[in-house]
Design a protein that fits this description.
The protein is an alpha+beta fold and about 400 residues long. It has helices spanning about 50-60, 100-110, 115-130, 145-160, 175-195, 205-210, 230-235, 240-245, 315-325; strands spanning about 5-15, 25-35, 40-45, 65-70, 75, 85-90, 165-170, 195-200, 215-220, 220-225, 250-255, 260-265, 270-275, 285-290, 295-300, 305, 310-315, 330-340, 345-350, 355-360, 375-385, 385-390. The strands form five sheets. A six-stranded mixed sheet has the order 6-7-8-3-9-10, with helices on both faces. Strands 13-12-11-14-22 form a five-stranded antiparallel sheet, with no helix packed on it. Strands 15-21-18-19-20 form a five-stranded antiparallel sheet. The longest helix is centred in the middle third of the chain and has 18 residues, at about 175-195. The two termini are about 35 Å apart. It binds adenosine-5'-diphosphate (ADP) and magnesium ion (MG). Adenosine-5'-diphosphate binds near residues 16, 25, 48, 50 and 51. The site of magnesium ion has 2 residues, from α1.
């Protein structure tokens, strides 16, 4: 894919002034982003973090207080929405209730002066693309389900062949099953049409599933931009690690560090190694170690350990073998909680002096092979590279 930039935001700030008073909300706080042509790019963050405001500025419904927005290299300040090569799909569909499905889709084309026959043809094609049948074209929106109404709204946005499609929580009103189906359809459609999508969601799983890249936002700022894998595997802040998936956070002090590995003392009896991306670390510095539950492995401290291939090994010998690998970090602990959740069992392990860690063990094979009783003594281990050191 050629890496041409479709959209660029440079130091964009947007403030809203409160009613009567002199209170200001800085909805968007100095955002800079570049979005490539053909990318599926998501803005992900909690409610109120400035996602919709960012989208509305790209669409032209709001102007920034300062900073610049460029579409295909051209600044769009004061260019009205209908003259921008973008179109928006809203969560609430915003279909005209008194027009039929096809009239809704044709409306924008006719406004642009496209001849009626041509508009009908293109609207019909757009509706068929979102799997609305010709026999349904003349029905009003209320005779369609929520999912179908969202498809019509999508057809209405796509029929104008925008360079960029902006989607503001477009699946938010749909139930889970339909939402999953629509997610895959949207991804397929986006790749097929090669249109740049900017997709707003507060749902981390949705963002991970659909996006080429994600910008994680909080309090009007972009905290991190990266591929789903980068965002999930190498979060650079506690907020991002916490917002995306489940994470254990252990607090401690740096005892020693080199190029990419730091030793962090958690308490008098426990020090663990973690990987870091940070510059300028110092011994004695307070830090956080973030570890995902699924990165942690477990085995009983005594007795035998059953291997994946069915063989068994003595637990003490197995431990020694593992510890010969310099990348492995291991602690001994006690099972505090065991929650069976179908695909996995979720354990809380107590270790050191009051440390706790959640880990997940997949329930393959016989349950008796992979179940650890509450109160039993276990070893948990992980690769130090999967434990990330964070400073904020
Ligand atoms: P999100 O879409 O991420 O939920 P928004 O962009 O809608 O967030 O809102 C960001 C912040 O700006 C919120 O605090 C919201 O209350 C405020 N805000 C948004 N639009 C307006 C407006 N028109 N007037 C005043 N405040 C607004
Ligand atoms: Mg919003």
């Amino acid at each position: 894919m050629s890496q041409q930039v479709d959209i660029e935001l440079r130091n964009v700030i947007k403030e809203f002034t409160g009613r009567g008073s002199d209170s200001h909300t800085r909805a968007v706080d100095n955002i800079s982003l570049t979005i490539d042509r053909g990318e599926f790019f998501s803005l992900l963050g909690p409610s109120g973090c400035g996602k919709t405001t960012t989208l509305r500025m790209i669409a032209g419904f709001e102007e920034p207080n300062s900073g610049e927005i460029l579409l295909r290299g051209k600044p769009v300040q004061n260019v009205p929405p209908f003259h921008r090569p973008v179109n928006t799909v809203f969560q609430d569909y915003a279909l005209f209730p008194h027009m039929s499905a096809i009239q809704n889709v044709m409306f924008g084309l006719e406004m642009e002066g496209v001849a009626r026959q041509e508009a009908l043809k293109r609207a019909g094609e757009a509706l068929e693309m979102v799997r609305i049948l010709p026999a349904q074209f003349n029905r009003p929106p209320r005779q369609f389900s929520g999912g179908q109404q969202q498809r019509i709204a999508l057809a209405r946005a796509l029929v104008k062949r925008p360079a960029v499609l902006l989607l503001d929580e477009p699946l938010g009103a749909l139930d889970l099953k339909l939402r999953k189906e629509m997610q895959y359809e949207l991804i397929n459609m986006q790749k097929e049409l090669a249109i740049t999508f900017i997709y707003v969601t507060h749902d981390q799983e949705e963002a991970l599933t659909m996006s080429d890249r994600i910008a994680v936002m909080n309090l009007g700022k972009v905290l991190q931009v990266g591929s789903p894998e980068e965002i999930y595997e190498t979060p650079t802040t506690r907020f991002v690690a916490d917002f995306i998936g489940e994470t254990n956070f252990l607090t401690g002090r740096i005892e020693d560090f080199d190029g990419k590995c730091a030793t962090v003392r958690l308490d008098a009896s426990t020090a663990i190694r973690a990987s870091h991306l940070e510059e300028g670390l110092a011994n004695g510095q307070d830090v956080i170690v973030a570890i995902r539950p699924e990165k942690i492995n477990i085995f009983a401290a005594q007795g035998v350990v059953k291997m994946d291939d069915g063989r068994t090994e003595n637990a003490v010998e197995y431990k020694q073998k593992l510890l010969a690998d310099p990348d492995i970090v291991m602690v001994e602990g006690v099972v505090d909680y065991a929650n069976y959740i179908g695909t996995d069992t979720r354990y809380t392990i107590r270790f050191g002096e009051g440390q706790k860690m959640v880990m997940r063990e997949q329930n393959f094979g016989l349950r008796s092979d992979t179940y650890y009783e509450v109160g039993s003594v276990v070893n948990i281990f992980w690769d130090y590279e999967t434990a990330r050191l964070l400073t904020h």
